[in-house]
Amino acid sequence: MTDTKYEPADIEIYVKDKGLVLKEKSLVAFTPYNKKIVGIGDEAEAIAAQDLESVTVQSPLRRGIIADYVVADRMFRHMLQKAYGKRHFFKLNMALGGIPRDTTEVEKKAFEDLAFHMGAKMVTIFDGTYEKFKKEMAVAAPGKFDTYHVIIIIGKNEPERYLAEALADLMQYAQNQGIDADRVREMLLESSH
Predict the structure, then answer these.
(1) Of 66, 41, 64, 59, which Cα lies nearest the Cα of 128?
(2) What average pLDDT does the structure give for the chain?
(3) Residue 153: its pLDDT value, please?
(4) pTM for this predicted structure
(5) DSSP character at residue 8
(6) Which of 32, 48, 118, 193 could form a disulfide with 2 if both were Cys (CB 3.0 to 4.6 A apart)?
(7) Fold entry, domain 10-157
(8) Residues 150, 151, 153: CA angle, nearest 5 degrees
(9) What is the Cα–Cα distance from 24 to 46, expressed in whole angstroms?
(10) Distance CA 6, CA 26 (A)
(11) H/E stretch holding 30
(12) What is the pLDDT of residue 118?
């Protein structure tokens, strides 16, 4: 059974001197009765396509931020090991990008803690793409970009799907509060002027 509670993000992992080495969806497949993980990323996406009743597929991220810390930790560790190889990845300089601009300090701290928990020695959080980060670093701190061993980008190739998720949440909240869809539409139109 596929649970589309959260729209999955696109995870890209860049490794120093290699460039982009992994691009997968932020999906985790698990058995609901014991929470055993049976697939992550591409594997989870393949399992979701099978639409098995015995397996739930979800994203531990919600609109680019951590919604389930424990599952996000397992997902990122798995993807990092897949991208970086079996080498021990402790003491890496790591950057996490694509973090939404309106992310709170607490939400940013969760990403930072996650990176340190995975063994990072230095962590930088930013809100852009890999290319934007590289350009900005060339101006702001020439040479520093080359000190990063791993750069993880959390993105969305189809941002309208995040918007659809946010609107679905809004409509659910309105329904719970007894506000009909026509009134929500009117309020949206009023707020856009």
Answers:
(1) 64
(2) 85
(3) 94
(4) 0.79
(5) P
(6) 48
(7) Nucleotidyltransferase; domain 5 (3.30.420)
(8) 145
(9) 11
(10) 10
(11) strand 28-31
(12) 85
Tokens of 3: 């649970």
Cross-strand pairs, 156:
none
Q: How far apart are CA 66 and CA 136, in angstroms?
A: 25
Distance, CA of 193 to CA of 31 (rounded, Å): 47
The segment(s) of the chain belonging to CATH 3.30.420.40 are: 10-157
d(CA 149, CA 76): 15
Q: Which amino acid is at 117?
A: H
* Residue 81 tokens, joined: 């090991």
**pLDDT tens, residue by residue, 105-159:** 999 999 999 999 888 899 999 988 899 999 999 899 888 999 999 999 998 765 6
Structure tokens belonging to residue 56: 């739930």
Is the predicted pLDDT of residue 2 greater than 50, yes or no? Answer: no
Using alpha carbons, select from 119, 141, 152, 132 the residue that is nearest to residue 16.
Answer: 152
Angstrom distance (rounded) from CA 84 to CA 97: 17
Q: What is the pLDDT of residue 162?
A: 60
First to last CA, the chain: 42
Closest CA to 156 of 41, 10, 4: 10
Q: Residue 33 — pLDDT band, cuts 50, 70, 90?
A: confident
- Identify whether the C-beta of residue 123 lies closer than 8 Å to the C-beta of residue 81: no
